[in-house]
Write a sequence for this structure.
């Protein structure tokens, strides 16, 4: 096999190792601090940090840290088991992912939408029949937070160990003597032939839970106020649209950077099981505790922004897939599509061909889907007003994440496509935000 560089970096330098260690230590503290701010300090991060400084870390942790509970741990375990069963046994369309640096093209069963429907119908039926309290997730949130943290850490430790001892596709692993043990090793770790650990955890425990958590916090708000506010309804509508669209287009997701490029380690293991369901739902958590009311004009403006962002996101991805599917014989915005025919090679010495689109949204900005993601994140957070920073965490996180991904994508594509990518950058100069960056 020939070593290729566009799929991963096999060596971790000192800076990377220090950064990884900092992330492992600080990440759980971040989500705990968010919960503490919401639970005890009226969602004020400033007041929370002042309390931390005045009391000292040990006393602060003793007084305010979330506590585990047997009931929450049992519920979280049952949740993982349910989603794992649905993932393993529900029928669904088969699709092929993007070719890996090692030359593999893996098959996936995309049954996420069915799993989402079954989960939410069961939750709704249980609530209507009086079998469960729809606000139970919100009421047991601190215990669930602890349980998710524990599972995310366990998964993040076990994933690289599996990569060292029994990798599924050794050609796609990044293993070297300099590799930090906390970093990701396997690209597509699987148990057996079909149970893909990364694909399962990327979509099921966190993203299926995202809307379920929102609905529970809405029920909690209704229990407190007697009604659900329009900002809560708006953020639930926008985020439900995002989640359902994700599962409708789950086959497309198998060809995105998360699946085709990111190796499975702490960032995805802990991030998808803990950070995603706790941080992406901060708007609903905030509004349940700090209800606000938007004017009809503000509501319409936020809704219009969110729907516009969604339309850009969906149409941009459709344009790229449409042109590639038709080998360039397509029209975008009423004109023949323009593009660059590029080639790249994998470690098995095979040469592959693709299209770099220079028209439609991809002629406006090189990462049109990222721009739409950022705009949609702003709309979601705007439902909470501008008096607190905490509910805007999702927007700031997405900004940093997408900026980082832009840089990483640029390096990867430059290594993968060479002169073809340089030509593309000349034709489409803007990376993330047209006219700005």
């Amino acid at each position: 096999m020939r070593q290729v560089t566009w799929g991963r970096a096999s060596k971790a330098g000192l800076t990377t190792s220090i950064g990884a260690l900092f992330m492992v230590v600080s990440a759980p503290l971040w989500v705990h601090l968010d919960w503490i701010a919401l639970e005890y300090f009226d969602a004020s991060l400033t007041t929370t940090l002042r309390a931390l400084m005045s009391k000292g870390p040990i006393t602060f942790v003793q007084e305010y840290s979330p506590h585990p509970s047997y009931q929450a741990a049992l519920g979280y375990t049952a949740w993982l088991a349910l989603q794992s069963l649905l993932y393993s046994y529900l029928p669904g369309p088969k699709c092929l992912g993007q070719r890996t640096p090692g030359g593999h093209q893996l098959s996936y069963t995309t049954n996420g939408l069915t799993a989402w429907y079954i989960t939410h119908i069961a939750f709704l039926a249980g609530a209507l029949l009086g079998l469960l309290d729809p606000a139970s997730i919100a009421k047991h949130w601190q215990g669930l937070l602890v349980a998710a943290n524990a599972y995310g850490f366990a998964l993040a430790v076990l994933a690289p160990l599996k990569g060292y001892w029994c990798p599924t596709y050794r050609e796609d692993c990044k293993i070297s003597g300099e590799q930090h043990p906390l970093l990701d090793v396997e690209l597509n770790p699987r148990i057996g032939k079909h149970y893909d650990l990364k694909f399962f955890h990327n979509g099921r425990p966190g993203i299926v839970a995202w809307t379920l958590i929102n609905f529970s916090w809405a029920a909690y708000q209704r229990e407190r106020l007697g009604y659900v506010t329009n900002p809560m309804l708006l953020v639930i509508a926008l985020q439900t649209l995002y989640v359902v669209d994700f599962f409708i287009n789950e086959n497309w997701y198998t060809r995105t950077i998360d699946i085709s490029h990111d190796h499975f380690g702490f960032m995805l293991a802990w991030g998808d099981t803990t950070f995603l369901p706790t941080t992406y739902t901060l708007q609903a958590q905030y509004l349940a505790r700090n209800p606000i009311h938007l004017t009809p004009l503000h509501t319409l403006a936020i809704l219009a922004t969110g729907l516009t962002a969604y339309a850009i996101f969906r149409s941009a991805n459709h344009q790229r897939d449409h042109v590639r599917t038709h080998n360039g014989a397509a029209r975008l915005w009423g004109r023949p599509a323009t593009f660059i025919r590029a080639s790249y090679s994998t470690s098995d010495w095979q040469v592959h061909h693709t299209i770099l689109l220079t028209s439609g949204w991809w002629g406006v900005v090189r990462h049109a889907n990222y721009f739409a993601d950022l705009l949609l994140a702003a709309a979601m957070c705007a439902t909470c007003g501008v008096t607190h920073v905490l509910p805007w965490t999702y927007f700031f996180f997405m900004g940093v994440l997408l900026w980082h991904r832009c840089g990483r994508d640029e390096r990867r594509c430059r290594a993968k496509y060479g002169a073809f990518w340089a030509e593309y950058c000349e034709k489409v100069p803007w990376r993330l935000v047209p006219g700005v960056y």
